[in-house]
Amino acid sequence: MKLYTECIACQVKVRFRDIVKLFPDEKQRMEALKAVIKVINDRIVDNTLNPVRLATELFRLLKSLSRVTDPYAKEKAEANKLALSVYPSIRSHVMAINSPEQRVVEALRVSLVGNLIDFGVAEHTPPSISELLSILKTLHIHGDPKAAAKALLKAKRIVVLMDNSGEAVFDRIIADILRPLGKEVIAIVKGGAFQNDITIHEAKDAGLYESFDEVVSTGTDAASIFLDEVSEEVLKIIKHSDIIVSKGMANYEYLTDIEHILRKTVLYLLIAKCEPIAIDTRAIKGAALTILRHFTT
């Protein structure tokens, strides 16, 4: 996805929020903000820079300046704990649905609601668990969730690119539904901290190993699966997959630029939490989206 002017403004706002969190002193905050603005100024020649590349570089900069390797560790642990408190009841609800296709559609709905647990968007505040449960009852999925479900039911090997902590617990239900049907479902998580995204270090506490056949680290703290950074293991897993489930906006922003390289069917699951994503997906801001892209030769 191309870089919009709003992406730049969003990055300044979100990174300033990080700065306030990481630096107690006003002088330190000013120096950190100047460093952020310098990177933005140096890197933005035109709108060909991918917004996820910029976000990754800026978050790495702040981790380096603050010497804090995981700025959102506390928030991630709390999000996983709260999601786990409602996971059994949500899972039971989905598993009780008779039709396999409808079970998958409901699992996608749960996964989409989880995508609201996001600290990386300037104009978005993550809902509470009670608010998420309320949203789950009424969430309308834009796109064709039945086609998405059929694609998953047809596939044998499914790779899920995980996004936020807390959300990852909700994503487990996709694997819980598909594995008893003979599918192999693999979770790809980050190797290091990027915002509140799930990493290999929180995977056990979130229960991912209980739901997925494998949980694999990207080997990097990048916001998505940057092909020049991820491990050979991840590249091999993707190569031998039938479908990629891409969670969240960052993965959408990056994967849409490399679909021609991946040469795979991709199912994007995300909430359009900002105007650039809404424009790019031709949806309204706030829409819950299933976007199925079949690779054709």
From TrEMBL:
A Pfam cross-reference name: ARMT1-like_dom
Checking InterPro entries in the record gives:
ARMT-1-like_metal-bd_sf, ARMT1-like_metal-bd, PH1575-like
Domain Damage-control phosphatase ARMT1-like metal-binding intervals: 5-283
Signal peptide bounds: none
Q: Which Gene3D superfamilies match?
A: Uncharacterised protein PF01937, DUF89, domain 2, Uncharacterised protein PF01937, DUF89, domain 3
This chain's protein is named: DUF89 family protein
